User: Fold this.
Amino acid sequence: MDRKNCYEYPRPALTTDCVIFGFGGNGLKVLLVEREKEPFKNKWALPGGFVHENENAEESAERVLLEKTGMKNVFIEQLYTFTQPDRDPREWIVSVTYFALVNNRQLQLITGRDIVKAEWFGVGHVPRLAFDHNNIVKKALERLRGKVRYQPIGFELLDEKFTLTQLQQLYEAVLGTVIDKRNFRKKILGMGLLKALNEKEKNVGRRAARYFSFDRKAYKKLTASGFNFEI
Amino acid sequence: MDRKNCYEYPRPALTTDCVIFGFGGNGLKVLLVEREKEPFKNKWALPGGFVHENENAEESAERVLLEKTGMKNVFIEQLYTFTQPDRDPREWIVSVTYFALVNNRQLQLITGRDIVKAEWFGVGHVPRLAFDHNNIVKKALERLRGKVRYQPIGFELLDEKFTLTQLQQLYEAVLGTVIDKRNFRKKILGMGLLKALNEKEKNVGRRAARYFSFDRKAYKKLTASGFNFEI
DNA sequence: GCTGATAAGTGTATAAATAACACTTTGGTC
DNA sequence: GACCAAAGTGTTATTTATACACTTATCAGC
Assistant:
């Protein structure tokens, strides 16, 4: 070790860890990777890595996401910073954590690559993870559940175009409730945030559902004039 | 400099900064301290300091609060972590920020001491601050405004006992709205979160108002059974 | 091309919450 | 005891939320 990185007082290493949520057919899922090194070698963990000197934590999280899972341009937001001195058995390591929401298309990307061993786990079936990562997942779930009702972030988990039933199932999965179909549609359409597309499902073996898309422009306009999203 | 704190890769210094809100007669206030050293010597800044190796960030924030302002046992919550590499002109310094809510009694404590030069500023009259601290204050205000409607944290800004008018004025100040007195009282009393005390204001030169206190026990019970606070 | 299976799509009536609004009462001062 | 200032108090109209069941479209199999 050379004398380059010496300081007057001890300093923590800085990492980012990312809780990536996806919405598959049967519920909300979180992406875990298998650790290739000690400590916790071969244990499941959140994708993460060290922050470089010339980048901020968010850039670092995005870089790590791309390197480890091949995902980019995903919705990402700072979650919490974990600073407990003994959270890493090696030394003082502080982690700025993020939570990310990806849709099915982004979710496909990773299955093609083989950058690290990664797997989706239903949020109810997350195994014992390395470090304090179970805590981080717990915090991310709380945040997602709290936020999904007051901000239109649920759309980040669906494809560009989606059916109202998919949207409803998403809310039911995240919130853990059952929602009345007619009331849900009345409410969500009444907000004026969805664009009805001239396109329907195909080859579904039943009546085909119409596709909708989230109208970001309309949402911006509405929020500017005091509108508050709420499900 | 000895060789004690040398690392393989560069590491950031870790600090905490704290946005402390108080509610004075005429609105919401934030506590600022004057910097005694370069950089930004004699400029206003948020109270903050370096995190020690054997403490977590929250303990550090509480320690700094006590050292710099004499406050303890205040409501404190992690806000956001600022990691922009050039946010400090000296070197790479990452700050885990907190927001704190103090009531009048805690607010008095500091005026007695003279630990650092500290002053309350109305949130609409915050001067140009050191580093990226104006950003931090902005973020804290957003958080407070977003949170005060869905969690009973407003009470942290009032004394143990308070009148309904004080509570209403607090919400009006934080949210920047005007609230109807009768509807406000109906709603807040209807929640069953306030204990009416057998005590009134004294020597006020008008009809004395009854004191109330926030019933934490009742709140815990209610949240456990699915109640959601909302103003 | 008819039948059956499956989920899409749709309206109304009741209950609850919110919003608007003004006067009487009380404690203290002069 | 007259006056000042803010405390305290109900009702109605409007909006929003909730509960609830049948018809329609698409595809598959015959």
